[in-house]
Amino acid sequence: MILVLSTAQSLYWLGRIAVRIDNLCHLLPFEDDEAARSYAHAFALPAWSADTLNQLLLDPDQTVSLPGNLQHLFENVQQVRGVILEQTYQAFNALQQTDIEPEPAFIDRKRSANQTVSSPAEDLISAQAEAPRELSLQLNPDIRLRLAQCMDVMREEDDRVQLFWKLGQIIESVDIALRVQSTPLTAIQGLAGILDELEALGWRGLDAAFHHFQQRPGLTGLYQLCDLLDELFEDGP
Amino acid sequence: MCSHLAEMDSSEAALLDTLRVPAKISEALPEPLSLVLPETLPASPNMNGFNHQQTQQALSKMLKSCESREEVSTLVTPQIDSHNTLNSPILNPSSGIPMNSTSQDCPVSPTSTELKISPEPANTAQVIPKVQYSVEHNDFFNEMMSGDHQVRASYTELDHWLQLQTPERLLTLNDTAARLFLEKGITFTVYSDKDNTTRPIPFDIIPRIIEIQEWRHLERGCSQRIRALNAFLDDVYHQHDIIRAGLIPAEQILANPAFQPWMMGQKLPGKIYAHVSGIDLIRDKQGEYFVLEDNLRIPSGVSYLLEGRRISESLMPEVFAEATIQPVSPYPQLLKQTLLESSETDDPLIVVLTPGRYNSAYYEHAFLAREMGVPLVTGHDLYVDGSEVFLKTVMGQRRVDVMYRRIDDPFLDPLAFNPDSMLGVPGLMAAYRAGSIVIANAPGTGIADDKSIYPYVDKMIEFYLGEKPILHTVPTFQCRNTSELSYVLANLDQLVVKETQGSGGYGMLVGPKASRAELEEFRRKLQQNPAAYIAQPTISLSVCPTCVEEGLASRHIDLRPFILSSPREVRMLPGGLTRVALEKGSLVVNSSQGGGVKDTWIITAKEGVGLALDSAPEPISDPLPDSPLALLEKNAPSASELSAVHGDTAHKTGELP
Questions:
Q1: In 10 A of CB B69, how many CB atoms?
Q2: Alpha carbon distance, N-terminus to C-terminus of chain B
Q3: Between chain A and chain B, how many beta carbons pairs sit less than 8 Å apart?
Q4: d(Cα B136, Cα A62) in Å, to the nearest integer?
Q5: pLDDT at B86
Q6: Confidence band for B66, pLDDT divided at 50, 70 and 90
Q7: A234: nearest CA in chain B?
Q8: What contacts B434, CB < 8 A, 6 or more positions away?
Q9: What ipTM was reported for this prediction?
Q10: Concatenated DSSP letters of B46-65
Q11: What is the DSSP letter of B398?
């Protein structure tokens, strides 16, 4: 298969966003304010409680949200439509047709049912004084199920298609792990294998960047590697 | 056969045959059989989904379980109350399983079916609602039914299949087809909607069928037509023989917005300009085929044809098993072969150039690229270096030899055409002029499918091929001509008026259906810019049975076969895209304006697929004695006349290489 650079880049981002969505589905809804604040800090998100983080991550107008990422996913699927199998497209299409649950229904054990929702500032102030608000939210389990089906069918794709898809998945996995202060050794090993395959295609310079990253696994090293990938996606090997 | 069976009418016997009721049970059935069956099988949801198929299954199971005549009588004897209501536990409306309390295999339903019967024996006419298709009137040629209401031979197998269906099942099949199209993401974008709405393509399960001999006639006619049009294009961009022969006014070609000066003098392999073409055909009341228009720029729709066929095969396998229908699946490989043959390079690299995912036909671009196994690219994936076009791949740059472009001429190259275009490849035309790349279809083909050129195609056939046209063309009035404009204005309410550069059914007037205000508005447009319009008499498009709520109804259709032309062969896919106007009485078949598509079956004996029709046309070097080309010898214009025309063109177009 002759794989166009821009298509390869779309496959890469397809892989990254798929992992991102899977991670969000795994975490949502946040129920603990401390955990939510920790996550928000790790990903530089403007949220300070479980409620505000859930609200943010389910807001379709926010690119970082679950619906926002799903939209990015489908845009990339369209970009790669000329290379993926029909069954693969149908799997992603089925995911696109799946509804995320409606906006979360907030149940406040202490407040009256008629009280309007407060502003974020008021919410922060009152958080210490009053009992915490209770969140009732059910994320549609079909989202994660259908995403898993998409990942399954991607295994039937051409090797070259899978190469860039996996590259994206691994990069995103490493990114997430580093942000939450863990060292993803397995993922880093997998990344090494992928980069070897890219070297065979003529993608030079990645080994040096990866070696630097391996010495001190961190976001800086990872993003230097990602920047190099972006240059290669733009100009080619 | 017992006596009462002999007295049954054919419909009841047919039902028993369908149910495969054992002979011994047949004898035990009470008469009339209609007492057993509901008078009308409900097809509407308010009967809890009770339907014909469930009735058959229930009755079959019920009768098979009976061992004796007495048992049958016990089961089927209805309990008629004083209101003549049959309170029958025979059939459970929700499961279709008999509610026989004596049978331990059958679950007891809390409900029972109430069937109204008359005290008299019910009419023994067919009680199963079959699909009815009646010819309402004979104003249009009916594809399925002849004038004496007989099913045409080519529709025999389909008719047999329809006889076994119900209106509900047909609608279910149509809904299933729609769902499959949606799952596959086969959509199109309606640009006229303010939101650029993306919609699934409306597909009707009932095919349009053409008998093979009829199809051969169309093949010959379309092949002839495309050969003449390719010859015209080569002439237009070289010697201008047809202009010098006085057959077409020079300004109608050279001042035409679709005329592409970049193409002047360009030598193309095999003189093929339109590698992919779609000839739109209609039938008049007598069943004669007419060419409605030629599409030589970027004809689309073949993907709907191919996917429609796949879906039809999956939903109607029994019909495909009975009938011999020419396959259409080889199209992508035929297209690839055509493109390969168009290049003089060994093992050429082919790409499909798309404007991107926001284009209404993006699905088709991706589909064809994937099926051909070639890259789908946008302008950003390509660049020109040293008069060659290169593709950026993950393994480095690859030279492109053949480009199947799905971008209109003005957007192909911002250095040559529209400078604002972000879709094309800067410098592409320079590479093309250098001969390093084949572009299919070639730039500038629009001059040949312009509606103002359409009236001359018959002359082209005679002029370039020395042949009589095989297919009819619709009489066309050129509004640029004063006398013809006068006629058009005087008869506007009876004509169809179209923009010469229009497409998609937009910008046209259907006189008989237009309001007074619409007629007046078009009158003003015609008077302001008559050269931009042509007019044709309203042709009564043929009709074909189409699924509607009530069953089948006639809807107007047209046909777009796809023709592939290479220097070696002209190939026509055996089966085209039938477009159908889904609204009753409508003549507009375009999907963007309420139209849908149907599968087209070419019913054939054992013949091969995608047969090559003709060899590539040989250049006309020796004019036939009676051919119009001989006129050139007598009527060649002077050099000063030619330069005056070109100079005038330069002034009008303002854009020369």
A1: 14
A2: 88
A3: 80
A4: 57
A5: 41
A6: low
A7: B392
A8: B387, B388
A9: 0.85
A10: GGTT--HHHHHHHHHHHHHH
A11: E
